[in-house]
Hints:
This protein is α/β, with parallel strands linked by helices. The chain is built from 13 helices and eight strands. Helix content is 44%, strand content 16%.
Amino acid sequence: MAKIAVFNQKGGVGKTTTTLNLAALLARRGADPLLMDLDPQGHLTGICSATVTASERSLYGFFAVGATLAGLIKRTESGLKIVPSHLDLARVETQFGKGPQVLNRLNQGIVKENLNTDRPILMDACPMLGVLSLNGVFAADRVLIPISADFLAIKGALQMERTLKALEQVLKKRVERRYVMTRYDSRRKMSWDIDRQLRDHFGSDVCETRIAENVSIAESPASNRDVFDHAPGSRGAQDYAALADELEFCGFLK
């Protein structure tokens, strides 16, 4: 099944929220997704109440001491499964460099442990372009790129496109990707302008579904819940359900 890196080099675009809510909906549909938090800030880990005190019990343990990915999985109260992050993940780049073997380590671990045979994997990639984010992209079949509806959105999207094209030279294949607009406000002309520019630049790689600015989406992380647990009838829940439907229909999640 699909291995998806949710990645954007620009922060504050809804990367973690998108990862969590897509996984939550897939779980409700019986897919048993596995989350991986590749960001040393550990926001996804925190929302899932999966924080670990010992770094060896996090994804850092996989890189540093050879812990198995399966052995690091924690089950959340809502039933999701996650390989948690830890601040020590920030040390991976200085400890292990940027060689091909390091950049492929996560993919090799996933394959060796057959973690992807019957479940989708969603990776919340670190926004900095480095060993952690590259491990996510190298391990992924596809990349989902949230783009917030603000004035830096197009600049960030173009930067991501340049990054992916450069990586394609190394991977020897095109990285399948989808751009999804987040924090969209139809009352603002800027949101319409950004949507038009994205579609002009990236065409069918831009999702038809747009995630509207929504109080429930903003509030749910504070209660350590996904939007479907927090406010199942909200516009935010409806938007993420529509996004999952669209991505499933085009085969992006399979």
